[in-house]
Design goal:
- With about 400 residues, the chain is mainly alpha-helical.
- The protein has one domain: MFS general substrate transporter like domains (Growth Hormone, Chain: A).
- About 75% of the residues lie in helices and about 0% in strands.
- It has 15 helices and no strands.
């Protein structure tokens, strides 16, 4: 592996670390935020998805104006400022800071899959960032306040900014798409996956706390969920490139989420650790979708990544808000969780449609043909067969 490849992979990993703590830290601290009533709490869970969706659509234009490297630089600075500003106090700074942070995340999340080229560094960075946000934030909230638990993530964004500034010239500029690409099924698939993922990150502690689980245990269960997603984020990109039966892979990745959500529906307090672990393993579906986006973009198409992620995240925002609205108006989690199970069925169906058209989804690598070198044969030596 060349030095440039090593540095690029490491930098992508460091930057990707910042794409989830803004959300998972908010979910972990949400029950303790005094300014977050039920409606504001629902908006806070859905707002990141809408901001990410709208910001992703603007990314190709921004990259065309200032270049990819400067776009990432400005996004990291905006993320740091937003994470610091949203803890100033009151509902308005909290909402505005969350929106700005997620707009920055949208730009980063649109560009990084193309720079990663299917590498596991990007989904692994997402998984580790999700785990850190869920694990560290509750401890910081207990030891100090929710402002400290949320605000210190601005320092992580500044660190990523400093690392990124040293990579000038090491990445190729993504090019616009040369032709329209059919991505409807992939967009729907990504949107449904994102809905379930952000529901887990935003509502899992609240579901467990309402079921009688202690706040400390509920926060730890979210951390376990994010941690269980880490090995999936590492393994799934390779599976996506190698598995021939992609429909089976889609079903296998959706199954743990079905188990986890069904457990939260039927007996949330009976085995909270098991349900959390199952939902974490189900996050491998997100790694599958992100890897598929990068592999479909043979020409480093920003427009494809922006379209799939932009529309997908907006869809997910409405799904998350619908679950929050159902919880508010029914007074429980039964109806929202039934909706999540329906979303998982849609996720599996759209995933099947996505991978059914192999020619328009991802390139399947062929086995290289072994070539027999032309060398003089010794007396009595047979000619070996090609590919033997």
């Amino acid at each position: 592996m060349s030095r440039a490849t090593t540095v690029s992979t490491a930098v992508i990993f460091v930057v990707a670390l910042n794409l989830r703590p803004a959300v998972t830290s908010l979910g972990a601290a949400l029950p303790d935020i005094s300014v977050a009533g039920s409606l504001i709490a629902a908006i806070l869970v859905a707002l990141p998805l809408w901001a990410i969706g709208l910001g992703g659509r603007a990314t190709p234009w921004l990259c065309g104006r200032v270049g990819t490297h400067r776009t990432v630089t400005l996004s990291l600075l905006g993320l740091a400022a937003a994470l610091a500003g949203r803890v100033l106090g009151g509902a308005v700074p909290l909402l505005a800071g969350t929106a700005l942070a997620c707009l920055s995340i949208a730009v980063l999340g649109t560009v990084l899959p193309l720079l990663a080229k299917g590498s596991a560094a990007y989904p692994l960075g997402l998984g580790l960032g999700s785990t850190a946000g869920a694990l560290i934030t509750p401890a910081a909230v207990l030891s100090s306040s929710w402002r400290a638990g949320l605000g210190w993530w601005a320092l992580v964004a500044l660190l990523a900014h400093l690392v990124w500034r040293r990579t000038t010239g090491e990445f190729l500029e993504p090019r616009p798409a040369s032709r329209p690409v059919r991505a409807t099924a992939l967009t729907i698939h990504f949107g449904l996956i994102s809905t379930v993922t952000f529901l887990v990150m935003g509502w899992l502690p609240g579901i467990l706390r309402d079921a009688g689980v202690s706040p400390t245990t509920a926060g730890a269960c979210l951390a376990v969920s994010m941690a269980m997603g880490l090995p999936m984020m590492w393994l799934v990109p390779g599976w996506t490139r190698r598995w021939r039966n992609q429909t089976l892979l889609v079903a296998a990745l959706a199954a743990p989420n079905v188990v986890g959500v069904a457990g939260l529906l039927l007996a949330p307090a009976a085995a909270p650790w098991a349900w959390a672990a199952a939902t974490g393993m189900g996050m491998g579906s997100l790694a599958f979708a992100l890897t598929t986006i990068s592999l479909r973009s043979k020409d480093s198409s920003l427009s494809l990544s922006a379209s799939v992620q932009g529309v997908g995240y907006v869809m997910a925002g409405f799904g998350v808000l619908a679950c929050g609205w159902l919880h508010t108006h029914t007074g429980g989690w039964r109806t929202p969780l039934l909706l999540v199970l329906a979303i998982l069925l849609g996720q599996a169906a759209s995933g099947h449609v996505t991978v059914a058209h192999r020619a328009t989804v991802i390139p399947f690598p062929r086995r290289p043909r072994r070539i027999v070198p032309k060398v003089p044969l010794r007396p009595g030596q047979e000619i070996p067969e090609v590919g033997a």
